[in-house]
Amino acid sequence: MRYLAFDKEKCVGCQICQLVCSGTWQKVFNPLKANLRIESLGWYGEFRAHICRQEYDADCVRACPTGALYVDEERGVVRFHRRRCDGCRLCMDACPYEAIFVHPDYEYIFRCDLCGGGKVQKCVEACPRQALSVEEVGA
Amino acid sequence: MNGYAGRITHVNLSSGKIRHETFTEDFAKKYLGGNGFAVRALLEEVPAGADPLGDENAFIICTGPLNGTLAHGSGRAGIVTRSPLTGYFMDSYFGGDFGSRLKQSGRDMVVVTGKSSRPVVLFFDDEDVSIIPCGDLWGKTTKETQDLLVHRLGKGISTLCCGPAGENMVSMACCICGTRAAGRGGTGAVMGSKNLKAVSVRGSGDIRVADMNGLLRFYVERKDQFLGLKGFPDKGTPFLVEAINTVGGMGTRNWQQETWEKVDRISAERILKEHFVRNAACFACNMGGCTRVVSSRKSSPVMTEGPEYETLYALGSNCDVDDLDIIIETDRLCDDYGIDTISFGSSLAFLMECFQRGLLSTKDTGGLDLSFGRGEILPICAHLVAKKEGFGDFIARGVEAMAREIAQGADRFACHIRGLEPPGHSARALKTMGIGYAVSPRGGTHHDSRPSLEYRLDREKRLNIQGKAKMAYDTANWSAVRDSLIVCSFCEGVFGFALSQEHADQINRTTGWDLTLEDLVQVGCRIHMMERLFNCREGLRRSDDRLPPRFLHEEIPSGNSKGLRTKPQELQQMLNEYYELRGWDSDGVPTKNALSALGLDDLML
What span, in angstroms and rounded, lies between the C-alpha atoms of B73 and B249? Predict the structure, then answer.
């Protein structure tokens, strides 16, 4: 499986990853509609990333009562079926990485699925400090 | 409307009334946003002769069509007001996410007028606007204020605030957002005069653009060009210390010299080697962050973001202080108190020369020894200025007012342009800045006419004035558009030092319009015309378009620009050329025809 890895030593907190993500997938610029989030931890440039780890035995998949979250073994990521989501937020409670988000404009959740498990991740391409990369780990 | 929220919010702090105003696409095309929107509002809202620290002045926070998008260097917002330091038009811009959040809250600009009877915070919580009493925040530093407001209003807000200096209406007080400053011209004092401690915003709305795929592609295509820029991505603005000192144009000991023999003591290399903690970035900074978190090396280390080139010049070479620990600690103090480091350092440098010449002694300063090089007095003076305590009350007035009071010929070496102390870019080594400062709507700023182009010319080409008025004109038009979009000056290295078709293309991709380069030049001219008009309404004329006597009459005594100055007759010739380019009459007043050509007939004097 693969996941989006974050290097906190390299991140400068520009949030370009969030802008690119919302622009790509929601067709608007809105950091609060991105599938990942970079959180500032204080005054002088320390950051924490909220990014899905794409775990096969993920708590969110188990918590989802409608089957909206599922493991796509072929692509090696956890994916999300928007139409099946009823916005119950049980997945958010279950996620240890605080990497599942909601926005008042939507009834469904959003989270990183490595751009659909594809080969190119827009945020990785855009990050000016190479703080994001795709890592592979054994299933 | 793509690129815009489409709404302006007016808040009157005297009456508590709040109203929203919409605008048309034609209005947006004519004034663009940011600087353009705000100077138009300032002309309409602030009557001639209004006291900058009175109810009638307006405190305007603005954004432009590129803020909140992925546009290069777009993590910015601006403040426009009548300056208590100069008495004229003032705009000052700051980095961070405030501009994006404000637009996401559904407003492009906020116009604050009146005066609250008690300290308040103005809070834009998406649609909702509230004026919240905050007596307990009065007296708090900018850092404490921002932390307390997160605690009170919740995570996810961005806050712009004044510090104790602004509360005390220090004429060189600035506004702070995060660790970034809207430094120049006393914007913090205007906040303080209105009992407005802070403006907080939470915005969750969308920024819509016309050509999302085109903008995303454009961003990635140009990314490496920004990262490849010399100096900025690795060292930030401190790389200019060595570069400008080599040109021979870095103000030293109150501009008595423009080359500093101790330059290595405050160089970028030294900062990176001895004080660097980590890189930091404004929101949406495509350069990977040109600023740095640094730490002093004392037993109780102080951290700050910066110090930038201008602070290193103002507190360093201009005061002859080579102690980076003290500069870092004073930079942080100035941020906490909300004091502009350029005006503060320049004011101290002026006083140090008064000391050197025997015009002042410790008897006049409450015991403060203000000799050049005495770094230990920098933090002491920052405390005194912020609170207007003791001799700090005098320093807080700035160079122009102090020189007037000291008299005894002190005006001969009082370095300011219409009350605003110049940044670290020489009016003698660079003729563009000679004319640029003289005609700048703000006074001593490097953000109207720009020095960047002339730095690239060799000494021979810098010697003469040919083409310099045009260079000042072209770069000032770019600055006006830059401040209307609102983007960072450091995009210049990639998109050019004057307006280009690439600027028009970015706007068009965002808005869906079909603006040409000529349209943009017109917008830049229109904005400058309105700023000039504002100043002329306050009585500004040709005789006010002047430079400090030192820059006109004393040659640079040493270094690679030795022998250079902007001679009085050269300045007059450049003024003639500049006025003609702008359509101002021989006394510097916009002509009826020029106003008419820019569609500003309704703004005749």
Answer: 27
Q: Does A106 touch chain B (CB under 8 A)?
A: no
- Is the ipTM reported for this complex over the cut 0.90? yes
Q: Where are the domains of chain B?
A: 7-202, 213-413, 431-603
Cα A60 from Cα B528, distance rounded (Å):
57
Residue B534 distance to chain A (closest CA, Å): 36
- Does the structural domain B431-603 have CATH classification 1.10.599.10? yes
CA B409/CA B553 separation, integer angstroms: 14
B278: contact with A, CB 8 A cutoff: yes
A126 and chain B: CB distance < 8 Å anywhere?
A: yes
Question: Are the Cβ atoms of A12 and B206 closer than 8 angstroms?
Answer: no
pLDDT digits (tens, 9 = 90+) for B454-504: 999 999 999 999 999 999 999 999 999 999 999 999 989 889 999 999 999
Other beta carbons within 10 Å of B272: 16
CA gap B182, B108 in Å, rounded? 18
Any B CB within 8 A of A12 CB: yes
Which CATH number does B7-202 carry? Answer: 3.60.9.10
CATH classification number, B213-413, choose in 1.10.3470.10, 3.40.190.10, 1.10.569.10, 1.20.140.10: 1.10.569.10
- Nearest neighbour of B212 by CB, restricted to A27, A44, A128: A27
Closest alpha carbon to B202 in B134, B149, B150, B124: B124
Give the model confidence (pLDDT) of B71-82 as tens digits.
999 999 999 999
**Most A CBs within 10 Å, among B67, B209, B283, B286, to test the A interface:** B283
Residue B471 makes CB contacts below 8 A (sequence gap 6+) with: B432, B449, B453, B454
Identify whether the C-beta of residue B110 lies closer than 8 Å to the C-beta of residue B60: yes
